[in-house]
Amino acid sequence: MRRFALYGALAVIGLLISPAANAIDHNNLEFGRSLRFDDAFSIAFGERSWEVGFGLGLPKKRSARYEAHMEFKYGFAPNRDVGISVEPAAGGGTDGRSNRFDVGNVALSYFHGFQREIGNAPALAYRVDVEAPTGRDEEGVRTRLRGIMTRTLRQYDKLHLNLDVNWAAKPGSGERRSTIAAVVGYSAPVGFPRRFDTTMLAQFALAQSPMRGEGWTGTVGMGIRRQTGVRSVVDVGIESDVFAPSGARTPFRFVAGYSVGY
């Protein structure tokens, strides 16, 4: 684990001293900023981006859950980027132990957009996330493989489809080794053609429960991304579970974030 942390730190240092590049784009959509889907486009070649987000969930029959997301990304090649992130959290449980602060798993990501949108062919990409077990009570590596499709519906409106396969090397007691999920997302500019600095988002997400014997969670959400400067974007979003396994439903979740590119 120490070796993993050292390699991650060295990688980040190397990226920080590389040449600066383009500005961030409010229309480049990523998981968690502010909803749960990615589009099929990486950040710009040579660009570096810091993303920070905060979330508040109000689960049914449990305490409030507080979450944070911190990620550094680098566009190391055309249509490809890498990142390192962590998601600390607290609350959301039914007792003192489950409500304690959890530093979360450190994750490395790799994104590759391998097909641009040409004619009737959609843009295609994939993303791989590998999490080290740095969080509380975690054992073994967790991996997510996400397939991504983006298709323009009108001049600027876009439809996004994400399909996930999640795998746990050492699942906990009662936990599935692998699960699947899907997200259908929609994005459109707000204020066009007078201005083009704001993007509206909507989604429907479907995720298999990580616990054996439990069913699926369906989540709807709406969000917005606003470019506040040449290199900065703010985002806000709200989500609600329309159905979920017993005791796992979150009727309301709020997220807000800030991204800066340089």
- Report the CATH topology name: Porin
Oligomer: single chain
Which structural class fits the helix and strand makeup? mainly beta
Q: Which architecture does the CATH hierarchy give at level 2? A: Beta Barrel
| Proportion of helical residues | under 10%
Helix count equals 1
Rounded Rg = 18 Å
The CATH superfamily appears as monomeric porin ompg
CATH class: Mainly Beta
Provide the domain count.
1
What profile does the largest beta sheet have?
12 strands, antiparallel, barrel
Work out the strand percent. Answer: over 45%
Order of helices and strands: HEEEEEEEEEEEEE
Q: How many beta strands in the DSSP annotation?
A: 13
Short description:
This protein has one helix and 13 strands. It has one helix at residues 2-16, and strands at 48-58, 65-77, 80-86, 89-91, 106-115, 123-132, 142-152, 158-168, 178-189, 198-208, 216-229, 232-243, 252-261.
Write the layout of secondary structure elements.
Blueprint lengths: L1 H15 L31 E11 L6 E13 L2 E7 L2 E3 L14 E10 L7 E10 L9 E11 L5 E11 L9 E12 L8 E11 L7 E14 L2 E12 L8 E10 L1
Antiparallel strand pairs: 1-2, 1-13, 2-3, 2-4, 3-5, 5-6, 6-7, 7-8, 8-9, 9-10, 10-11, 11-12, 12-13
